[in-house]
Structures are given as structure tokens and as C-alpha cells.
């Protein structure tokens, strides 16, 4: 009997405040969709870091004859065979180095022609103008400074370059977008909570006579509160379900079909469906608990009347 009463009161409350209930559902859906999207973006950035940082190389470019005339770092002339041997030997002794690959001037020229063959400069370059280099694979990409400190400014070394710096700019942008999404999410959650509190208060005010009679006949505080809390929880759960739908449709449309980024940007290791599915229970639990707790605290003062 009590359960039937609570359920009937939930239906009455939702219908009586239909406009505000709709606003609660929409705001909860949007805020939790942004919440899930920010979590997925965080997973995506982490996945991309692990994928790309694992492919990062440190390059030690060696001086050639052209550099000796124009670059102050190569003022002592082009790199000698002894210097190349010492550089390679020192690299192989370093604990942070995983592997060392030598690229000759001819190989560098060949790679340049493959990548920039259509450039006007390509026809004017010759192999002896290219730089020899060592490509170093690090065990930990964060240890770039160890190599840079050891070889930057050394005789025969023109420069030490780290590809990680380029990726850091990209990941900095992605992290900025992630935090921007979280800021919007937080704002939407505040709006949703305010709507929930106002909806509960309006509902409680419109049924103040019924709740007053219930108090007079000895109904417990929880029994009086239950319909209002359940109304907020049901509205929140509907919004959470919509948020889950938005995430599923968004993942399908943006990555798999529609925009099909997985085909257009095959160099990016996109997160899979498992990452999306693992976020759905959290979103549903939040959509249920957040409105229920907001309603509980909003109703406390009404029980003191």
C-alpha cells in the first residue's frame, strides 16, 4: 500500500510540474553527457600519449661542410669519423637509451625526396647538403633532457631535437579542451541542481496541505519525503539515460560512421566501445543519486513546519 502511494505521488508530481521536470531532464542530460565526454576525452588523450610517446625519437644532427660555414655550433668543422664513433659509443652506454639508428646523408636525402619531392627546394638540394644523424629510441620519453644535456654543444653535433616537444603542444591543446569541457559540465551541473531544488520546493509548496495532514496523522519524515525524492530521482534517471544515448550516438557518429574519423585519421589510436560502455554505469548512478540527494537536503526545512 505504501509503495503504491509513493508511486502514485511520483506520477502526480511529475505531471503537475511538467515544464520544470522537462527542464531538469534536459539539464541533467546535457551536464552528464558533458561529464561522460570529458572522461572519454581524458581516456583518449592518455591513449594517444601512450601510443605516440612510445614512437618518439630523439635526433642528434651532425655537422656537415655547409654547417661549418654558417652554423656557430659547427665552427670547428664537419663531424669526423672519430667523433661519430664516440657519440655512438656514448649513446649505447646510456641506460635511458633503448636503441640507436644511424642515418647517412644519402638516406636523409632519399627520405627528403620521398616526403617533399614536390617542393621547389627539392631540385636544388644534393646529398652532401643533408645532415647525418643518430635516431635514438628512449626507454622513457620523459628522459629527453638526459640526452640533450650530454650531447648539445658537443664537437660535431649541430643540434639535438626531441619530437616530444611537438606532441606536447598537441596534448596541451587537447588537455585545454578537456578542462574547458569540464568547466561547462560543472556549470551545467550547478544549473541542474538549482532546477532540481526549485522543482522540489514548488512541488512541496503545491502539496503543503497534503503533507501537513500527513504530519498530523503521524506520518514519518521519510514517508513524507519519499515521493518528492523519488520524483527528482526519476527525472534525473531519465536525463542520465538520455546522456548515455548521446554518448553512444556520438561515439558511433563521430568515430565509426558519419564523420568516420577512424578512417580519415588512421594515425590516431581512437578509444574503443569498451571505454564508452564502462562510463555508462557511473553516469546512470550519478543521475540517480545527485537529484535524490539534492531533493533530500532541499526538503529538510519543510519537515520542520
Keywords:
305 residues; alpha+beta; 4 strands
Describe the protein in words.
It contains twelve helices and four strands. The chain starts with a helix and ends in a 6-residue tail after the last helix. It has 305 residues and is of the alpha+beta class. Strands 2-3-1-4 form a four-stranded antiparallel sheet.
Short structural summary:
The protein is α+β, with helices and mostly antiparallel strands. It is about 70% helix and about 10% strand. The chain has a 4-stranded antiparallel beta sheet.
Strand content: 5-15%
Overall pLDDT level: 79
SSE string, helices as H and strands as E:
HHEHHEHEHEHHHHHH
Work out the number of β strands.
4
Helix content: 55-70%
- Dominant shape: elongated
Discrete helix count? 12
Low-confidence stretches: none
Give the biggest sheet.
4 strands, antiparallel
Secondary structure blueprint with pairings:
Layout: H1 2-16, H2 18-53, E1 57-62, H3 65-70, H4 81-93, E2 97-103, H5 105-116, E3 133-138, H6 144-151, E4 157-162, H7 164-206, H8 208-216, H9 221-256, H10 261-264, H11 273-277, H12 280-299
Antiparallel strand pairs: 1-3, 1-4, 2-3
Amino acid at each position: 500500500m505504501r509503495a503504491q502511494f509513493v508511486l502514485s505521488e511520483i506520477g502526480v508530481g511529475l505531471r503537475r510540474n511538467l515544464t520544470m521536470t522537462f527542464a531538469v531532464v534536459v539539464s541533467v542530460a546535457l551536464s552528464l553527457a558533458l561529464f561522460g565526454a570529458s572522461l572519454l576525452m581524458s581516456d583518449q588523450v592518455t591513449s594517444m600519449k601512450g601510443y605516440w610517446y612510445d614512437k618518439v625519437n630523439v635526433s642528434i644532427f651532425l655537422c656537415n661542410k655547409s654547417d661549418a660555414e654558417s652554423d656557430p655550433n659547427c665552427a670547428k668543422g664537419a663531424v669526423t669519423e672519430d667523433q661519430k664513433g664516440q657519440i655512438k659509443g656514448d649513446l649505447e652506454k646510456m641506460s635511458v637509451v633503448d636503441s640507436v639508428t644511424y642515418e647517412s646523408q644519402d638516406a636523409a636525402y632519399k627520405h627528403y625526396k620521398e616526403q617533399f619531392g614536390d617542393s621547389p627546394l627539392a631540385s636544388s638540394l644534393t646529398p652532401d647538403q643533408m645532415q647525418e644523424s643518430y635516431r635514438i629510441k628512449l626507454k622513457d620519453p620523459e628522459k629527453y633532457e638526459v640526452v640533450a644535456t650530454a650531447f648539445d654543444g658537443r664537437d660535431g653535433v649541430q643540434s639535438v631535437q626531441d619530437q616530444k616537444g611537438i606532441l606536447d603542444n598537441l596534448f596541451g591543446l587537447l588537455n585545454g579542451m578537456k578542462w574547458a569541457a569540464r568547466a561547462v559540465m560543472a556549470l551545467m551541473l550547478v544549473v541542474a541542481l538549482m532546477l532540481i531544488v526549485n522543482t522540489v520546493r514548488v512541488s512541496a509548496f503545491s502539496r503543503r496541505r497534503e503533507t501537513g495532514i500527513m504530519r498530523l496523522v503521524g506520518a514519518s519524515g521519510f514517508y513524507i519525503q519519499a515521493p518528492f525524492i523519488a520524483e527528482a530521482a526519476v527525472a534525473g534517471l531519465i536525463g542520465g539515460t538520455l546522456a548515455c544515448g548521446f554518448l553512444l550516438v556520438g561515439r558511433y557518429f563521430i568515430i565509426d560512421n558519419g564523420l568516420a574519423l577512424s578512417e580519415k585519421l588512421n594515425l590516431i589510436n581512437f578509444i574503443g566501445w569498451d571505454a564508452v560502455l564502462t562510463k555508462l554505469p557511473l553516469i546512470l548512478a550519478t543521475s540517480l543519486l545527485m537529484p535524490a540527494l539534492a531533493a533530500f537536503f532541499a526538503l529538510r526545512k519543510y519537515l520542520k513546519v
